[in-house]
Prior knowledge:
The complex is a heterodimer.
Chain A: H1 23-40, H2 42-61, H3 72-102, H4 105-110, H5 116-144, H6 153-177, H7 180-197, H8 209-215, H9 219-233, H10 239-259
Helix pairs in contact in A: 1-5, 2-3, 2-5, 3-5, 3-6, 3-7, 3-9, 6-9, 6-10, 9-10
Chain B: E1 7-16, E2 19-29, E3 34-38, H1 45-52, E4 60-65, H2 74-77, E5 81-84, H3 96-105, H4 113-119, H5 135-147, E6 153-157, H6 165-180, E7 184-189, H7 192-198, E8 201-206, E9 209-214, H8 216-221, E10 226-231, H9 238-244, E11 250-255, E12 258-263, H10 267-279, E13 285-291, H11 294-302
Parallel strand pairs in B: 3-7, 3-8, 5-6, 6-7
Antiparallel strand pairs in B: 1-2, 1-4, 8-9, 10-12, 10-13, 11-12
Helix pairs in contact in B: 3-5
Main location (chain A): membrane
Membrane topology (chain A): Multi-pass membrane protein
Transmembrane segments (chain A): 45-65, 77-99, 125-148, 154-175, 182-202, 242-260
Amino acid sequence: xxxxTGTDATTGVFTPAPGAAPLPRMIRAQAAxxxxxxxxxxxxxxxxxxxxxxxxxxxxxxxxxxxGGGKRVDFLxxxxxxxxxxxxxxxxxxxxxxxxxxxxxxxxxxxxxLPRWALMTxxxxxxxxxxxxxxxxxxxIALAMGWSPHGDPAWxxxxxxxxxxxxxxxxxxxxxxxxxxATLAAANLVFLLLLVGGGVIVPLSRFPHAARxxxxxxxxxxxxxxxxxxxxxxxxxxxGDLGVLAVWAVLGLGAAARWFRWE
Amino acid sequence: MQSTPAxxxxxxxxxxxxxxxxxxxxxxVPRGTVTAVLGPNGAGKTTTVETCxxxxxxxxxxxxxxxxxxxxxxxxxRPRIGVMLQNGGVYPGARxxxxxxHTAKLHRDPLDPAMLVERLGLGTxxxxxxxxxxxxxxxxxxxxxxxxxxxxxxxxDEPTAGLDxxxxxxxxxxxxxxxxxxxxxxxxxxxxxxAEHLADHVVIVDGxxxxxxxxxxxxxxxxxxGTLRFTGRPGLDLMSLLNALPADSAALxxxxxxxxxxGKVDPQLLATVTSWCAQHGxxxxxxxxxxxxxxxxxxxxxGKELRG
Lengths: 263, 308
């Protein structure tokens, strides 16, 4: 029957030669693609680059918020690093993954040779690459505005990594359980609320005591407070903040692993 | 060529909530062939194919694909198959060629993406993001992604839905070439002509079951071999006509003046009918020989049209 549709002569072009690429190559390719998708998306860039940068410059230059003693940039830079981590690991990842789920990207990848764990590894790599770019940009701007960071860089890295884990878990939980549009709305709302109430630019000491008790337990509060302790005050490891982030990371990643739906 | 079939589905049952989507379906796909799973929307075609791809766990029956269990041995199976989903599967912001190149990188020995871009006319997509490509461009990209890894077996779910005739022809040519090169293909379709043109083997599915299967020729041969139609004046003596015809024939006048002869339609039958007409002074107007099509077979089996 197929004689009517063209040639039946073998050309050998499609002769089967199946097989998965080596894992490192697959993960590298996937991470590179995910990063490109993120950097190409205007709304994502607004969230991850423009908003933190504008807030850093604006609030450092103009005394809009009373940040206590010392240079404003010394208070603000750690908070905006925390915001940068949240914007990429939580908000950006939740929205992107939600739409990947909606567009069947995750479903199609599930039929490819790329294992699920390798996809998640690639997503994490992409988040970390983006964060490195964000942090470099914010650090350069902050330094230009007179930022003088203190403390042990190793503690800063530990806090950033644990914060990334906590926010990724929550972002993936949202993306894997809600509809894409609901994730878009909710992730932006949470971003806004945590920006205001998470000690990013407004010190939590400005809030009533009772509210503060709760706000202190938010992941972004723990991350900004921990980073501030090290970078602004040269403190040692902020174990309390680290503990809060660890609990969020375990809960978020655990719940995402349990309830994430791929289609 | 290995002796185990490429796909072997026996008594597959799949329910969603209280609704039974697939209800004891059997499907065997020999290696190196093109099999079309033909049926109306909601017949269970996609569920069956997606169970073979490892997306769904059967509620009953067994599924083996390339000798493997798609759920428990998916890791070994996935690199060997190519999958074209009914829609989507691409990052909304990705460009066609970018996504195809990426898919190629997940495979050990992929085809040249540029060749597929050329073959499937994706070159005009340029830098347009996936979400703004036309439905036909999205379909062709999905097809390219299914074959770029040089699979042994491809599953194509409605590969030509929404394509213009030219793109449809390009897809048909590609499937024929895959088959010629030894790739096994399973495609779902609700286009009769697609199944007739492409498939070595057609499985007609309705209500979650395979209700008939065979080569297109076999399926069309079942029951009457063919039909001869003509028009003439109303009320001809059908008994007299029938006496002139071979024993297993039937003569009908479904609407006044319109006649249908069913049976082994061959030159002898045609000659018998025309000479009978000549003897009775009837001018057989608009005389036509018709073969049964898959459409007729489907209509007879299910009592419904495949697609309005």
